[in-house]
Amino acid sequence: MTAPPDDCLARNEWICGEYLSTRRDILLDAVGQHLQLTVLSVLIGLAIALPLAVVARRWGWAAGPVLAVTTVLYTIPSLAMFSLLLPVYGLSAALVVAGLVLYSLTLLVRNILAGLRAVPEDTRQAARGMGYGPVRLLLTVELPLALPAAMAGLRIATVSAVSLATVGAIVGFGGLGNLIYAGMNTYFKAQVLTASVLCVVIAVAADLLLLGIQWLITPWTRARRG
């Protein structure tokens, strides 16, 4: 009778410290790519969503079309989305980033717009009475008061981007998704579990980080609760 191997990699166990020690560089590269895809897509999405929400708030007739288009984009399955973008971006990281940006728009636009709409009209009127123009009113009154709702949308969009980035593995740019995809094809248990757990850790850490930033930049919400 042959004795079982004493190496957890050879035994293909789900939890294997040997995998962490021998694949450290691969894991770090995958985490780095995953973070790059997530951060870049969320920042670009925020840069697009903010003016869209402001336009929808300023001109009420634009809200319907803006929300409709972003909602339709969010309903497109991820594989179909990447396939539609393939002729434009080819097999590249830009393809994944573009898809994640489009998915983030509905979450960001809706929450930013909700925050802007929640600003009390008497607050706007008081600012106008003090001589605030449209731009100053937006930057110093409306956007700060809309921050809680906007940050809630940003948190959801970021966590969603962490999750959806794994689908980029189908084009070779999925960060930790590459490891999950390869591990599932070869039934490499330790790789699948480790990469999946790291995705969860990144999502939770990002959410907590943004929650902490929100706590710091919205002190008036704490005073209100108190």
CATH top level is Mainly Alpha
CATH architecture: Orthogonal Bundle
- Shape descriptor: elongated
CATH homologous group name: MetI-like
Radius of gyration: 22 Å
Structural class: mainly alpha
Distance between the termini: 70 Å
Say what oligomer this is: single chain
Largest sheet entry: none
Q: How much helix is in the residues?
A: over 70%
Task: Describe what this molecule looks like in 3D.
Helix 2 packs antiparallel against helix 3, helix 2 crosses helix 8 and helix 6 packs across helix 7. The mean pLDDT is 86. This protein is mainly alpha-helical and 226 residues long. It has one domain: MetI-like fold, CATH 1.10.3720.10. The protein is elongated, with a radius of gyration of 22 Å.
Quick overview of this protein structure:
By secondary structure, the protein is mostly helical.
Provide the descriptors you would attach to this structure in a database record.
elongated, MetI-like fold, 226 residues, mainly alpha
Topology summary:
Blueprint: H1 17-22, H2 24-58, H3 60-75, H4 78-89, H5 93-117, H6 121-129, H7 134-164, H8 176-186, H9 189-217, H10 219-225
Helix pairs in contact: 2-3, 2-5, 2-7, 2-8, 3-5, 4-5, 5-7, 6-7, 7-9, 8-9
